Amino acid sequence: MNLNLYPFARIVLPFSLGIYLAHEQLSAFPFLLLFLFAPLLSEFHHRRSALLLNTLLCGFIYCGMLCYQTNNPMAGQKLFSQYQLNSIHGFKGIVTDEPKIGSSSSKAILEITAVKLNSRWVSANGYLLLVSKEKFPKKLQYGSQLFICERPCPIPDARNPGEFSPKIHYQKKGILFQTFVHEKNMQITNKFEGHLLIAESIQYRQKGINLLKKAGYRTGELALLTALVFGDDDHIEREISALYADTGVLHILSVSGLHIGIVILALQALLKLVLPSKSFDVLRGLLLVSAIWCYALLTGMSSPVVRACMMCTLFVAGGLMRRKSQAINLLCASAMVMLCVKPIWLFDVGFQLSFLAITGIFLAQPWIEKYTEHPSRLLKLVMQTSIASLAATLLTLPVCLSEFHRFSWYFIPANLLAIPLSTGIMYAIFLQLPLVMIGIPSAWMTMLITFLIRLMEQVLRLIAGLPCAVSDNIGISKPEIILLVIALISLLTFLYGLNKKPLYALLILLLLHQTWLVYHDYCLQAQRFLIVFSNSRNRHNGAAFIEGRQAIFYFTREESEPYKKQCIQNTCRVYEIRKYRAKEISGSKSSMISFTPSIKREDDLHKRVSSNVSAIQGKFLPVVMNKKGDTQKPKKAFFLRQAFILNLNNAKNPIVSQR
Fold this sequence. Notes:
- The chain is globular.
- The longest helix has 28 residues, at 44-71.
- It has helices at 7-23, 29-37, 44-71, 78-82, 166-171, 196-214, 219-230, 238-246, 257-274, 281-299, 303-320, 327-341, 349-363, 365-371, 377-404, 411-438, 443-464, 478-497, 501-524, 561-575, 595-603, 605-608, 613-616, and strands at residues 88-95, 100-101, 106-117, 120-132, 144-148, 153-154, 177-180, 186-192, 406-408, 470-472, 528-533, 542-547, 550-556, 579-585, 624-625, 631-632, 644-647.
- 29% of the residues are buried.
- The strands form four sheets. Strands 1, 2, 3, 4, 5, 6, 7 and 8 form an eight-stranded mixed beta sheet that branches. Strands 14-13-12-11-17 form a five-stranded mixed beta sheet.
- Helix 20 (561-575) links the parallel strand 13 (550-556) and strand 14 (579-585).
- The protein has five domains: 3-71, no CATH class; 75-194, CATH 2.40.50; 202-472, no CATH class; 478-524, no CATH class; 528-647, no CATH class.
- By secondary structure, it is α+β, with helices and mostly antiparallel strands.
């Protein structure tokens, strides 16, 4: 692949590297030395041009770092480090997004404009997560200004190893703290401080959802249609979401590039029907771009939607200027514009999946054109969809494994069947909404769309029921992710240009991976941990003793089987355990006061950890041990939401039985 044809690829890669270095607070000095001194290894007559090029690349790295530091939402969190949390007694701010109302809690994001220190208000900036155990008042909407009399607290981390971490999730959005609100400690003013365009899009989205309710859809179908058309996936049941994830078609449930492509095809056909003459090319292009950006506003402006709209805008602009545009160039230019506006998008999972998937499809384009020439239109479409789905899945594999820890083996047949059905559902909805709006009966269309939704669900259930349909609980480390990404890019580059050089890089990467695996396995043999698990009731009713790649799990009998299974699977994935044993012990319902004596009687573990009793004393949360081996009831302050992890790498005696 000749990078000279893709100048934006040479810009966006070092720019993204600069954003990453600034986010991780790493020094760019080693990378700058690598870029500057690499030309010295080349021939003399190439050194000058290579040195100039690498100097420009170093400049783009610094531009990325500067852009992140300028537009970093985390910079606003300095107000919490400037003042002690106990000294902050209230906030004044603006709701920056539509509040999310769930079954158990409601959440909203507040942009802070002032904080109350003791008895005075001080201007400040930053973001805060509002959490309520009940529904927010109807008056609380996007752009509402409100006063809160409550202290902030850090967003909690995952309860146990390997579980979903709210702290990391909101940290990627630039939010580190939260506060619990209710009607008594919250005052909403009548002043609107948001953008009128976003407020109008939220209102029109709610009107569209009300039209779907008016059409007579049930709760399950309504939740899926709301996610499919308007991007609101908060009301989808966990079972349905897990079904789509197990079959590799979870992207259908959130508005992405696929949905924007469907909308673009529908709009192009409509505009050609209304404005067939070539003299209306400019007007058709402007109407198309305006319509897709309005739809993007309607769906919430997620990163995959913005990427698709940006590429469409650049493609239409190039066509109007009679300029031939390269697809990869458009992709890199879209990424560059998006990262300049919002650098934190680089760490958004939707952004990563969207760009990696479309990059894989573009790199596989020569193979799609070469091996899909067939007189049968249906067979040609099936082959094109299969190759595109395979290329997109391969390049998104590292992100999927690191974020979701699962892989669907039947993703090709699932996409071949689900994408046409979802496309038909969207086209039918676009036809039905105007009919419902003007009052024309459309019960037959409701029945048709409901049938298509249930058919798609039954097909996916059939695929998910096949043997070895999904591999879950897959663990992958950061070095493996980096090596896998480079290897997949090298492989697709070889397939794109049929050049042998990427194959050499692939062989070197495989050798490095095997070397790293040997070293990593050696490090794992020396790990020793004591983990005390925390359940949803903030009780510590389970523990794990880890030595090397073996573990013993203990749970009280009152804990449910799904909780035990989840703790064991997540711990085995995080610590890469190969052999484990799980046992039940007697424990009280209030806390694990009898936890430690039961362990001692059953496995005599107190002898194996006798050299660490002094380290465990005062730190072991549910039980405080003394020299006689008795237990003392701890204070309430010892009970925490998160699991307790004690590093026993310096232990002299083994803590896991080898039998």
